[in-house]
Amino acid sequence: MKQDEFERVRSALFCTSSGKGGGDRKCGLVNQPDFKALLAEFPWIRYDTLVSIYSQDCVARVKQAYGIHRRQERLDEYGERWRQGESLVAISECLDFPPCSLARLLLPNLLGSAFVTGVPGRVTKIFNDPDCLQPLLEHQGGDSNKLLDSGSIPRLISDVKACIKRDHVSSPLVASVKRAVGLEYEAVLYQLLSSSGLAYETESDLRKKGATKTPDALLKIPFLLGDKVVNWIDSKACFCSEELYYNDGVKQFKQYVNRFGPGLVIYWFGYVEDIPFEEGVLISDSFPEQFTHL
């Protein structure tokens, strides 16, 4: 995909689309675009590619908006809206800010910062199991229970559950799906390596030997892709934009090149072809069909 085409796709992902009941709604961090319509508009682009581009753009937009929504005066306003009966999901839709991100920011306001941030991992525990909030509050006692009346606690638990269900950007469910997809494509890579007769060590194998910062597969015997030597392969279950490559890829791949020599990175959902990729790193969106054994 060329950069100009990528920009057109990214712009289309955040345009107004048909909402429920026939009305229009603005796509953004809460309302997803109509992927079916987008596939009709860009029939040569895979569904997984569209979702990956959208997901990356959402993450970037959340980072940009985070500083605004974490201001104390904003949190006081959102907390008061919740106490007046507005749900966390409704507030997040109004703000176009992911429900789980909003809930994480707002929990200290609703429950007390000492309760929420005083114990490492407490927020993660609450999002992994919202029902644990009631016994945690009963055990904690003190100021935490003064901020909410007893009837508000079940409502907050229900709201956190609704946030997790509604959020397609920052919920623990989304994180779990991304991890699962990443592992799935690593397994695909290993299967293709084995079926191609290429011996390799996995990242897990290398870490058992004490290695750190390792690719997904280090070849025991390199192969030639065209006239380029490939010593290692890294699997990325995402689309590679210029921002992603320079923010998350360059430093990582340089370490691989310095330690293991040149290699190959597979972005399974595609990449922007115009990116000036680093020396020693080949980029592809698939496992090579033809190569030369050494």
Automatic annotation (TrEMBL):
Transmembrane segments: none annotated. It is found in: Cytoplasm; Nucleus. It holds the Pfam family TPD. GO terms for cellular component: cytoplasm; nucleus. InterPro entries: CDIN1 (IPR029404). The keyword Cytoplasm applies. Keywords: Cytoplasm, Nucleus. Its main location: cytoplasm. This is CDAN1-interacting nuclease 1. It comes from Chloropicon primus.
